[in-house]
Write the structure tokens for this entry.
Amino acid sequence: MATQTQRRGSLRSAVTTGIGKAVRRAAGMVGGGSAFPGMVVEKIDRGFLGRTLAQLPLGTVVVSGTNGKTSTTRMIAQTLENLGFAVATNPTGSNFVRGVVSSLVRQVDSRGGLHADVAVFELDEAYAALFVKQVPPRYCVLLNVLRDQLDRFGEIDNTARLLGAVAAATTGTVVLNRDDARVAALAGVARSAKKTDYYGLEPNLRPMFPSDDDLHGHVVEDTDEARAAEAAKQAYRNLPATVTLASADRDQAEFLIDGAKHGATMRVSGVYNLFNAAAALAVVRAVVADAMDARGLSPKAERAVKQLRVMAAEQRDETLVKAVSRVTPAFGRGETIDVDGTLVDLVLVKNPSGFRSALQSFSPEGADTMIAINDQYADGRDMSWLWDVDFTSLRGRGVAMVSGTRRWDMALRLRYDGVEPREVTEDLGQAVDRLLAAGPGARKRIYCTYTAMLEIRKHLEILLKVDKRLAGIAGIQRTVERGAEER
Amino acid sequence: MTQENGGAAQDATKEAADTAPGAAGESRPIDVVSLYAHDMNIYGDSGNVLVIEKRLRLYGYEPVVHLYNPGDLWPEHVDLVLGGGGQDSGQRIIQKDFLQRGGILRQLAKEGVPMLMICGLYQLFGKYFQTVSGDRIPGVGVFDAVTIGKKARLIGNVVERSRDFGIIVGYENHSGQTFLHGDTKPLATVSKGQGNNLDDGFEGARVGNVIGTYMHGSLLPKNPRVADFLIARAAEHRYGTFEPRMSREARHELDLLDRTAREARDVAQQRPR
């Protein structure tokens, strides 16, 4: 696998890395964003990505799909780390190829050597298809295809085709969600892979995960096409899965792995996160199986593999479940921040199915709700998606505050559902202040789009002068705003 | 209205009808067909159905929404038809049924039944859609229009001016370019965005009470004049006249909706493409 020379990196990589790191420092000084060094490195050395990742003894894992990329990537990376592997990843959610290159520039040594056993990257659907042209991944995890940012990809079947390119380029194990018919169908194109594994839901949980077609379908049709589509969906759901989610109640999960039940108390909560954990388990299981006879692993990983080798299969799976249960929630996704004793939940929403599941996951009782909708480029300009979300669950307690560039679109949407927004305020910082002041002590829940979330976090950061975890956010936000202006 | 299933939508209609403001006196149903709700309903087009239902109720009518899908029986009464956008696969699924319904749709259009067709169904209300590979998918020909599939996708916010409806705001996302002929007039002239095609600056189409447009957003929430036009023509089709019967609460609620829509329209006109 990785020879000594590759491990140390090449002269070319050393030069590229030097420039990349210098750009990163310079960009940091003028407040540049996280993807900028990647852009420079891409320009001067197109082979940097492939060469750097070719060093890894366990190769690259690509995570893509509409919803849950960031959470799942984090789960896979942290689970592998918890097991003892050294992992390179793009944890900031900068899921374009440039973001991946930037994160690698940060992680390689001065000679371009990447000291990791495996890389795990979250990639936006369109960029995943580009990425795999440069670097065929050893593993991929394809989560779902839902309506999201259609203004960028055109349409949902096209999105499935983009994911198909990822499945087709994967050389080791393709992991597919058997409960999403568009994803499960991609097994047919995974021709370079050694095997295809499925993860899924046990039937009792399926009603909690409406598919995109379920969301938009009203009637069971009695046509040949509809019957054929329904039959195909059922057939996919009967595929044998290596990992399924069998029960989910807040932070309590049960996974079925090879027929054996494994219960766990998780640090993440909510059915969607627990289902992402099932996806993570399926791919980690494939990586660990390959690690059993891999060469060139880091010393710590060698020790971990030695222990895993002597375990019985079920005991090994139990170890993996323990490792995934210790994963902490991802940045901004269902995160709770303590503001002087008032708990503030920040919930990222970016498409109808995500917004629906967020509204289902949290009870509106006992919390003041705020909704912040921006329409910067990173959020998507089209507001149509708000009309595919049912807000009637918020009628009882109402919505305390609506903010963001498209606050009036949101207020209008709520009023058509008979939900009264008590206040509509343009400035996000002011909106948060007023929300906090209006009911001190009562829990706050803020549903927000991506750039709105960044602004709100920044505001809370000033409010709290909080921990260093927040340090990088200002930079990311500036990038997003610049991106918006460019368009 | 919920988008989950027909049952829930009908329950919601029924429940609201019981408590409808201004519903005193005899009930005045208006039958609304949501055309191919399953397959041609992308980009929030169900928002249009929701707006029609809500405003009909506020005006003192009882909306009866029929979610029509391929193979369904055609409803006995039809006063208003709403259709949305779809992707290629959706268009294939409805194609056969749609052409079979072409006669009914043309007849209803001739009788003055108001219709609103967005994006995909707007294209298929023309004579044909010619794909990039040169195949011609026939339409029902309510509009004297043809659509030519192109590589470029026209995407972004749109602001346009219409003689009958004033400023219309929305969002376009299409790769087919539509060209109008004969008696079919454009709905509006584009002041921001592209519209029907890259050449003539027009957007949408209008024949009698039938409106075709590329505008998502959803269209009707932020453009209540278009919604009220459709409602008034639907009431006239059914009862000869449009006579709102509104309680004070209903007036207040409608006023609040329209003030909110004005704010949302102002913002929409300021946003980048």
Notes: Chain B touches chain A through 52 residues (CB under 8 Å). Residues 1-23 of chain B have pLDDT under 50 and may be disordered. Chain B has one domain: 6-270. Chain B has eight helices and twelve strands.
